[in-house]
Amino acid sequence: MERRNFLARLGAYCAAAGLPAFALADDDHDDDRRGSTRPGGNPSTLPVTGLTGRVVVVGGGMAGAAVAKFLRLWGGAGVQVTLVEREPRYTSNILSNLVLTNTVQMSSLAFDYGKLAATYGITVVQGEASAADPVSRTLSVATASGPRTLGYDRLVVAPGIDFAYPDGLQTAAAQALVTHAWTAGPQTTTLRDQIRAMPAGGSFVMTVPPAPYRCPPGPYERACVVADWLKRNRPGSRVVVLDANPAITAERESFTRAFEQTHAGIITYVPNAPVVQVDVGARTVHTAMGPFKGDVLNVIPTNVGPKFLKDIGVANADRGFAQVDVLSYESTAAPGIHVIGDASATTQPKAGHIGNQEGKVCADAILRIFAGGAPDPAR
Ligand SMILES: Cc1cc2nc3c(=O)[nH]c(=O)nc-3n(C[C@H](O)[C@H](O)[C@H](O)COP(=O)(O)OP(=O)(O)OC[C@H]3O[C@@H](n4cnc5c(N)ncnc54)[C@H](O)[C@@H]3O)c2cc1C
Hints:
- The chain has helices spanning 2-17, 62-75, 114-120, 172-177, 186-196, 218-233, 252-262, 307-311, 352-370, and strands spanning 53-58, 79-85, 89-91, 110-112, 123-126, 128-133, 138-143, 146-151, 154-157, 162-164, 203-208, 238-243, 267-270, 275-279, 284-287, 290-293, 296-298, 302-304, 322-325, 330-331, 337-339, 344-345.
- By secondary structure, it is of the alpha/beta class.
- The protein has two domains: 2-161 and 305-370, 3-Layer(bba) Sandwich (FAD/NAD(P)-binding domain), CATH 3.50.50; 163-302, 3-Layer(bba) Sandwich (FAD/NAD(P)-binding domain), CATH 3.50.50.60.
- The chain has a five-stranded parallel sheet with strand order 5-2-1-9-21, covered by helices on one side.
- Helix 7 (252-262) links the parallel strand 12 and strand 13.
- The longest helix has 19 residues, at 352-370.
- It is elongated.
- The chain starts with a helix and ends in a 9-residue tail after the last helix.
- Mean pLDDT is 91; it is low at 1-35.
- Flavin-adenine dinucleotide binds at residues 58-64, 84-87, 90, 93-94, 96-97, 128-129, 158-160, 182, 214-215, 218, 306, 308, 341-343, 350-353, 355.
């Protein structure tokens, strides 16, 4: 509330002082009926702040949806927000490990973008963002009804992660047989079915990628839920956790206890075991600690920044992630472009609740900039 009041006062101050509002470039914002665009209106619940400006957000995941929402909630109706998302619906990774044991159904993890459009007046464009021109401040988007160009004053990108597949896993055919299920979706149900088809006394061999990766405790949590299910449904089975890192990377005490006590004799934990190659036919993962054969392989590849970051000139950190100023999440390579969520390289973990917080800090910084000020140095 404090922040909201502050922004309202700041907006009113700007209007009264005649500070320049951010110009609205003449793009195709009015052409909202093409493709699967969901037009945003100005719901009466939005505050009147006097702020104006245009923000385009790429990626409607946990970080992107948050920044879009808070830009409108705090900035008010004069701040136009367009969200570009390639998928018609978002599938949450959170709780997706429980799909593997049939405790949770995939359908309960799916969300659409109707509420962002209806409640917050965000224009949602379904399409793939491919390039940004920092001079004209425009974003190119491929939609089902053809290419579009969206103008912006500030661009926020939150495209998540991509994967660098090891040798043996680089074809779509190999990836269909050995899944990562580290982006919830069809791979999650494939892996669930593979686990269900395991014989009693079988082995589930999974890998943990080198840090930093999305959801630090997630792989160890997966090992535990699969071990628990196998114990009850496929007696005598084993889970082998091949960790590229020298030790458990998150909640070490809890997972050590889980591996050595709760699931003793079922989970084998092998640190310092980065994947060298995967032999899909022989169902074997070759690692620095030797080969491991399993009835089911679950290889979570090294997480990298999506190619889109490189395409727009912000992939200036290790593995193609984006370096940012954490007061605003503005790229250190491309002024006017902010990178939030798993795609940014910070000391914070790559997690949904962190992406949500980054979205709020970024929204606050952009609104302060729209008001003629600077990001809050105390963030
Ligand atoms: C098994 C598992 C369990 C997890 N559990 C938790 C948990 O309990 N708590 C927690 O906080 N986190 C958890 N996480 C982590 C969390 O899911 C991620 O950190 C979070 O989703 C990151 O949010 P994001 O917005 O950066 O990326 P994403 O959620 O991946 O969203 C990125 C979006 O961008 C879109 N996109 C990408 N490129 C383009 C483009 N060029 N054009 C248009 N759209 C594009 C994608 O379609 C996607 O919708 C878990 C992760 C996994 C794998």
